[in-house]
Amino acid sequence: MPLTRLDPVTALIIVDLQKGLVGLPLAHPIEPVIRHARSLADAFRARALPVVLVNVAGSAPGRTEQQRQTGLHTAGPRPAGWTDLVPELGQQPDDIVLTKRTWGAFASTDLEAQLKTRGVTQVVISGVATGTGVEATARQAYEAGFNVTLACDAMTDSRAQAHDYSIRSVFPRLGETGTSAEIIALLPPIGSA
Description:
CATH architecture: 3-Layer(aba) Sandwich
Keywords: Hydrolase
Organism: Acetobacter orleanensis
Order of helices and strands: EHHEEHEHEHEH
Oligomer: single chain
Strand order of the largest sheet: 3-2-1-4-5-6
Pfam family, one: Isochorismatase
Protein name: Hydrolase
Number of helices: 6
Distance between the termini: 28 Å
GO molecular function: hydrolase activity
Shape: globular
Largest sheet: 6 strands, parallel
Strand content: 15-25%
Radius of gyration: 16 Å
């Protein structure tokens, strides 16, 4: 289904585009993903719409059957700068910056309250990894009552199959999907607010 519209107060959420993750093997080249995320961030900032930059500094405890991958779940201390957001995002003082310790950006933070305080009714989500951090954030946003849009060219995963499955089978049940250019085209003209 093509994108229909964006609510007047829509926020952009960029998930886990941080130094410790973007260097891991990914299904798609990371440079275009970062470039598309930055174009979204610039467009939202130009319209004074909220931009949320999320990094991850841990994971939920608990046992899993599948061995955890290296990178996020590596035992021991992480290298210096591991949680730093990539500078290409052009972080600004007005951006909302959150650190999470679970897959989704809502479960272990005050993101829902921050967005609702600002009158946000819709979120656009991008980042890594499509099948974990992005999908969990989208599910949590949907469950919190936000309209959800997913910028499919501004995300990737370490597993191509997980990326494709989320985009094809999960995201259409949570919201609408599109490219960063299609999403930007639905934003109000600059200065119209």
